């Protein structure tokens, strides 16, 4: 016990009185210290993440909540970041659905020979990571006589087509009942009026529930920041499609909305040397896609799941 | 993947209608769809004002034979088919390259059991002819192909056969389509085999990926 008002030493500074310093208090203090340490350890990935995140990005609202002015600010910031990180002058558009348009895609499996030009075109158009050859399209080499994707292979090489195989290109099916959208806990992914399922990369928390929910393996996760040489960056970008994605977010095929919402055909279709791909507006009765759906033998992948894809396969 | 037995369009339209009705009946029950699925029916398709058109590529004209040598001025020369064929008697029976001579040596012919003069015109070698004898210019070669390949021609006319580039929306820009002989050699029309030269490094299947990346 200490008497701070020491009569014989009036010049000493006063000290707080600590009485009955119990074991209980010591343990509490100990745990508090340990708890704080554990908390610091637990949030350390966040601290690392914060180093890759600008204040503006951290404070940004969900795309769907942004006013036009806020969008302009966000886009200016993202264009600036592209310049900083990739040394590329890019233009990021805010392409919205065209009223009266619902996009639909179809692939002629009688004609597709599995050459993979669509995969490569997607890779370049959408500014995918060069090291991993990432792409939104997988072409599956399938044994003839089955539609079971599990029996297919994506790693085939050499001359195609092989005699006993057919080729099934699979990308996002832009489902009308998208399981990926249903499971997103933060609503970072949704279906737009023209049928395109999009992702707000700045709102995605990278939980990958959507990737797990997709029965078509159509979503990709960015394990690292995509690397694209400045001269290879496609500068025609859109907020919801091919702008270069941050690390730790999920991405997917957007029917090249930065092209298709400006009236152009998707990059994979233009790249297809066999003409197996057809794209169009199903709401236009005069469209190619309407004629095709009415006149060909049309199939849907995993129809029994009830996902209602806006993506069709047909045979001649 | 199963066969679509019922008219697909009707089902698709029903699905869209149901979606709209559901969105109208349950406002706010799916907040994520608030912006995507409006509670009013989709507006009708716009009357597309086709300011632009679909351009089908055409060959420039009859093929020319490049001569091996040069003229005294050192210029390479090419001659029209009719240069020789106007003075040679056509062999209407000929079907194979083996019995062809001069410029046609080594020509691969694998187009059914067609005779040369099934498509080429015996009277004017710079033109083609249909089965009924009608003359077809080389630039209109697709007319010739279509007389046998009508199914492909029909699909082509509806954008379901053949590659294309440009705009799907012809109110915004033109579209260019390949013609038959851009992809098919008329003498051996089977589409050639190709070699796959680009592959994503698929994490699930590529054994060369680093172990920590394999989940």
TrEMBL record, chain A:
PROSITE patterns, per the entry: 4FE4S_FER_1 (PS00198), 4FE4S_FER_2 (PS51379), TAT (PS51318)
A UniProt-annotated Pfam family: Fer4_11
Keywords: 4Fe-4S, Iron, Iron-sulfur, Metal-binding
One function term, GO molecular function aspect: metal ion binding
Keyword Iron among UniProt keywords: yes
Residue ranges annotated for the 4Fe-4S ferredoxin-type domain, each copy included: 195-224
Domain of life, source organism: Bacteria
Name of this chain's protein: Tetrathionate reductase subunit B
Organism of this sequence: Pirellulimonas nuda
UniProtKB/TrEMBL annotation, chain B:
Coiled-coil features, chain-numbered ranges: none
Tree of life domain: Bacteria
Signal sequence residues: 1-24
Record keywords: Signal
Gene3D superfamilies: Flavocytochrome C3, Chain A (1.10.1130.10)
InterPro entries xrefs: Multihaem_cyt_sf, Paired_CXXCH_1
Doubled CXXCH motif domain residues: 174-195
Keyword Transcription regulation attributed: no
Name this polypeptide is given: Doubled CXXCH motif (Paired_CXXCH_1)
Organism name: Pirellulimonas nuda
């Amino acid at each position: 016990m200490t008497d701070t008002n020491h009569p014989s030493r009036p010049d000493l500074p006063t000290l707080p009185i600590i009485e009955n310093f119990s074991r209980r208090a010591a343990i509490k203090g100990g745990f508090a210290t340990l708890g704080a340490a554990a908390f610091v350890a637990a949030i350390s990935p966040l601290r690392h993440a914060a180093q890759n995140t600008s204040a503006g990005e951290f404070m940004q609202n969900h795309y769907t909540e942004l006013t036009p002015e806020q969008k302009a600010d966000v886009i200016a910031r993202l264009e600036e970041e592209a310049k900083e990180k990739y040394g590329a002058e890019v233009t990021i558009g805010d392409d919205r659905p065209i009223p009266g348009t619902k996009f639909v895609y179809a692939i002629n499996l009688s004609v597709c020979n599995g050459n993979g030009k669509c995969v490569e075109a997607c890779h370049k158009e959408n500014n995918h990571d060069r090291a991993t050859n990432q792409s939104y399209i997988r072409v599956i080499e399938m044994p003839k006589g089955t539609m079971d994707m599990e029996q297919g292979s994506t790693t085939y090489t050499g001359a195609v087509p092989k005699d006993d195989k057919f080729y099934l290109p699979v990308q996002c099916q832009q489902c009308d009942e998208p399981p990926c959208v249903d499971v997103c806990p933060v609503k970072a992914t949704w279906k737009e009026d023209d049928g395109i399922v999009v992702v707000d990369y700045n709102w995605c928390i990278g939980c990958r529930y959507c990737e797990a929910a997709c029965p078509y393996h159509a979503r990709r996760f960015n394990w690292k920041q995509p690397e694209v040489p400045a001269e290879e960056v496609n500068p025609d970008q859109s907020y919801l499609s091919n702008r270069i994605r941050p690390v730790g977010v999920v991405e997917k095929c957007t029917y090249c909305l930065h092209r298709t919402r400006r009236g152009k055909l998707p990059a994979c279709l233009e790249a297809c040397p066999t003409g197996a791909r057809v794209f169009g507006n199903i709401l236009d009765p005069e469209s190619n896609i309407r004629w095709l759906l009415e006149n060909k033998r049309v199939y849907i992948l995993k129809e029994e799941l009830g996902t209602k894809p806006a993506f069709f396969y047909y045979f001649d | 993947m199963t066969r679509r037995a019922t008219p697909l369009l009707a089902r698709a339209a029903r699905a869209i209608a149901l979606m709209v009705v559901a969105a109208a009946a349950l406002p706010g029950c799916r907040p994520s769809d608030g912006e995507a699925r409006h509670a009013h029916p989709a507006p009708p398709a716009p009357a597309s004002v086709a300011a632009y058109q679909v351009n089908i590529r055409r060959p420039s004209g009859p093929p020319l034979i490049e001569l091996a040598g040069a003229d005294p001025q050192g210029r390479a020369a090419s001659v029209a088919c009719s240069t020789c064929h106007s003075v040679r008697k056509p062999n209407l029976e000929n079907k194979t390259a083996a019995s062809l001579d001069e410029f046609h040596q080594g020509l691969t012919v694998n187009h059914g059991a067609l005779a040369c003069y099934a498509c080429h015109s015996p009277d004017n070698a710079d033109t083609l002819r249909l089965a009924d004898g009608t003359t077809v210019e080389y630039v209109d070669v697709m007319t010739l192909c279509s007389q046998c390949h009508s199914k492909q021609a029909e699909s082509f006319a509806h954008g379901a056969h053949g590659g294309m580039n440009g705009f799907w929306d012809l109110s915004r820009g033109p579209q260019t389509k390949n013609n038959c002989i851009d992809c098919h050699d008329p003498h051996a029309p089977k589409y050639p085999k190709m070699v796959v030269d680009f592959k994503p490094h698929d994490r699930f299947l590529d054994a060369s990926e680093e172990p920590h990346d394999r989940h």
